Automatic annotation (TrEMBL):
The lineage of its organism: Eukaryota, Sar, Stramenopiles, Ochrophyta, Bacillariophyta. InterPro entries: EF_Hand_1_Ca_BS, Glutathione-S-Trfase_C-like, Glutathione-S-Trfase_C_sf, Glutathione_S-Trfase, Glutathione_S-Trfase_N, GST_Zeta, Thioredoxin-like_sf. Signal peptide: none annotated. This is Maleylacetoacetate isomerase. Residues 289-298 have a biased composition (Basic and acidic residues). Pfam families: GST_N_2. Residues 133-270 form the GST C-terminal domain. GO terms for molecular function: glutathione transferase activity; maleylacetoacetate isomerase activity. Residues 34-121 form the GST N-terminal domain. It comes from Odontella aurita. GO terms for cellular component: cytoplasm.
């Protein structure tokens, strides 16, 4: 999914001509795709990843809500967009052909955005000096895949509903999901520690984000939404992955994450009670920053209980 960022080259006049041609091609690419629409669910961690990428490049887009709790992803109209019956789905218009382009799977979508807008706004893979470090870029992709392939599928509503159904109630799908999330975040924590030590050795100090960088990367775009959902499953993330929690604080103060946060999405429930789970993440970070961990945990627990009751009622 990872995208190759904008790499600059220096050289002779011949090289300069090549750069001009590249710039021209880039400008054409940026004008080529317009009218972006994101089919998403506000609490979907995969959708949040894509929203971060869109915000990083200041790409205007319309949100088309798909309520997963109401199984809107199984509708005939959505099935035409994504046969996997999932979110997110990104649609846009290719002005060179006048046809619609449609991409599913969050990492593929982010890769697409990096390819068509290589120099616009920010990038979720390192540019500049970081672009010359293939090991760092690979480590960022590795972290993204730990979340995307190793953790996120465990928490899919369809997964634990199927476990409940197939086991005849002998197994609890939510408990299964919690165990998978805990195992994956434990591994992610170890990878983050390794990367931060390498960055500290190389640069004299590690940055505040997941991989020790000084700007958010694809790793942050995957880890932060996963931590948000882990809390909803009752995972004690403060105990399990303290380094990831430190990085989460840095991200939640960053404009890309502020604007893309679930509680700022058009399909987020409007009332404070209905929005308790989304608010719990922000409250948790703020409370811990102030040293008020006890209040933070009580608020998060209450929000999670309420959300679980609503989910249970809808599922039944």
């Amino acid at each position: 999914m990872p995208a190759d960022p904008d790499l600059t080259t220096e050289g002779s006049a011949a090289s300069g001509a090549s750069e001009a041609a590249t710039t021209s091609a880039t400008e054409l690419s940026q004008d080529r795709y317009t009218n972006f629409k994101l089919h998403s669910y506000y609490r979907s961690s995969s959708s949040w990843r894509v929203r971060v990428a869109l915000e990083s490049k200041s790409i205007p887009y319309a949100t088309i809500p798909v309520n997963l709790l109401e199984s809107e992803q199984t509708s005939a109209s959505h099935a035409e967009l994504n046969p996997m019956l999932q979110v997110p789905v990104l649609e846009c218009t290719d002005t060179s052909t006048g046809r619609a382009a449609r991409i599913t799977q969050s990492l593929a979508i982010i890769d697409f955005l990096e390819e068509i807008f290589p120099s616009r706004g920010g990038s979720l893979l390192p540019r500049g000096a970081g672009a010359s470090d293939p090991a760092l870029r690979a480590a960022i992709r590795e972290m993204a895949e730990v979340i995307n392939s190793g953790i996120q599928p465990m928490q899919n509503l369809s997964t634990f509903r199927q476990i409940d159904a197939d086991s005849g109630g002998a197994m609890n799908g939510k408990d299964f999901a919690k165990g998978g999330i805990e195992k994956g975040l434990g591994a992610a924590e170890k990878l983050a520690v390794i990367s931060r030590k390498k960055d500290a050795a190389r640069a004299g100090a590690a940055g505040p984000f997941v991989m020790g960088t000084f700007a958010p990367t694809l790793a942050d775009a995957c880890v932060v939404p996963q931590l948000y959902n882990a809390r909803r499953f009752g995972v004690d993330v403060d105990e399990l992955c303290p380094n990831l929690i430190e990085a989460e604080r840095a991200s939640l103060d960053h404009p890309w994450f502020v604007r893309s946060h679930p509680d700022r999405q058009p399909d987020a429930p409007p009332t404070d009670n209905n929005n308790a789970a989304a608010a719990a993440t922000t409250a948790a970070v703020a409370a811990k920053r102030n040293g008020d961990k006890g209040e933070c945990e009580r608020g998060a627990s209450a929000g999670d209980d309420e959300e679980q009751e609503k989910k249970k009622a809808r599922a039944e």
